[in-house]
Design goal:
With 106 residues, this protein is an alpha+beta fold. The protein has helices at residues 41-51, 56-68, 87-103, and strands at residues 2-12, 17-28, 31-36, 74-83. Helix content is 39%, strand content 37%.
């Protein structure tokens, strides 16, 4: 089964669009793995004010909604996809992708 690696972004006042990365998510039907940009106020707000109260199906629906149609507030963009059976391997790819994003200046 294919796992998507997506970057979740929120509104950035500098660009006027949802271009500020706050999380990397591994995502496939029935499973998500979120890793958050540390010390980011927008990431904390999204995590604790929006995502935390959603059940797993609702989290997938939230990702799909903003993957299908980005808005000023949120966007979800695929950066990679791969086939892996073990969740621990997918979780490592999520962490590595976030590390790459942080090194790039997120």
């Amino acid at each position: 089964m294919s796992t998507r690696i997506v970057v979740v972004s929120v509104y950035d006042p500098l660009t006027g669009w949802s271009t500020l990365p706050v999380a990397v998510v591994g995502w496939r039907p029935g499973w998500t793995c979120w890793d958050w940009v540390p010390k980011s106020e927008p990431a904390l707000r999204l995590r604790y004010d929006v995502i935390e109260d959603l059940d797993p199906d609702q989290r997938e629906a939230w990702l799909q909604r903003f993957f299908d149609q980005a808005t000023l507030a949120y966007s979800v963009d695929e950066v990679d996809a791969f086939v892996v059976e073990e969740e621990c391997m997918a979780e490592q790819v999520v962490r590595d992708t976030l590390d790459d994003l942080l090194v790039a200046g997120a």
